[in-house]
Write a structure and sequence with these properties.
Layout lengths: L1 H12 L1 H19 L3 H22 L1
């Protein structure tokens, strides 16, 4: 569970990362409402994973 706390701390300490995660959820919701639920899940994963990667690389 230590890794989960570290990821949580990334979102709490980096407001830009938190906003990108919320944007990913909003985009995923729009895509899911359009009927492409698998694509929505993939989009959420890619945006959040890319945001985490960028956040850890830029520090």
């Amino acid at each position: 569970m230590k890794w989960l706390k570290e990821i949580y701390d990334l979102f709490v300490d980096d407001p830009k990362l938190a906003i990108l995660a919320l944007a990913a959820l909003a985009i995923g919701l729009i895509i899911a409402k359009a009927g492409a639920r698998s694509v929505a899940g993939l989009v959420i994963f890619l945006i959040v994973a890319g945001s985490l990667w960028y956040s850890t690389r830029s520090d």
